[in-house]
Amino acid sequence: MTNRELAALAYELRKKTVDVIVGAKTGHIGGDMSVMDTLVMLYFKHMNVSPENKDDPNRDRFVLSKGHSVESYYTVLAEKGFFDFETYKNSFSRYGSEFIGHPHNTLPGVEMNSGSLGYGLPVCVGMALAGKMDGAAYRVYTVMGDGELAEGSVWEGAMAAGHYHLDNLCAVVDRNSLQISGETEDVMSHEPLADRFAAFGWHVIECDGNDMNSLDAAFTEAKETRGQPSVVIAHTIKGRGSSVMENQAPWHHKVPNAEEYARIQADLTSRKEAIENA
Ligand SMILES: Cc1ncc(C[n+]2csc(CCOP(=O)(O)OP(=O)(O)O)c2C)c(N)n1
Ligand SMILES: [Mg+2]
User: Domains in the chain, please, with CATH?
Assistant: First the structure.
């Protein structure tokens, strides 16, 4: 698929994700929308993982450390063929469902339970170190939120990854500048974020996380980097795709009402069509 086709796919999958959230009457919609392009670029272009090789020791590993964005993650896994989208949509977050409200590793394609922030990177450091010790060729990817970076365990993981020169590890920060209660820089400041990762021995790549060409170049650069782990600081817009939600903290966890739903779906459709007709 071309990057333009991937960009259009990301809008289609945003629309499906909104349907999941409205059906379940719950979901972290803002972070779902900001991270969708990253997930599509990784699953459909950069990572060597699929339903066919999901148990192969050489598959690439992915952990959604910001596990609250499970709705977009599961929509992407369904599109990739790991499970049926309708089954997921109709049972997500319902009592007794396997599709509980955060990533659950009994489902095909899910490497790690997540949702308690701050644990994806440390676990991925272990996976990457194991890969080095085994001489395996797989790569390890994790996506964190920027609010998540307030967790101390993130920086213990960052320290170890630098120490062990884990160039098979790529961490993404979904840098939407908002967390649950407002601006990250007000709640717990991260800047100068690039310098902080660099000081821990990381190769730092900044990109436009809502632009497929920019993401593609960033993940290519990470793959080519030797001797250091890479972090992709993906600058994104929380709620990306509709003016109803964009850059508004209350849309961290909110279910659109009927009127908002109609406007959001119309906005997402027109963004998708603009990409297809460009
Ligand atoms: C350890 C822990 N503390 C608190 C929470 C509650 N929580 C869920 S989402 C969230 C904000 C996360 O913000 P960010 O990482 O920026 O995510 P995004 O903006 O991408 O949605 C918080 C505090 C949690 N899931 N885990
Ligand atoms: Mg955030």
Answer: 3-277 (3.40.50.970)
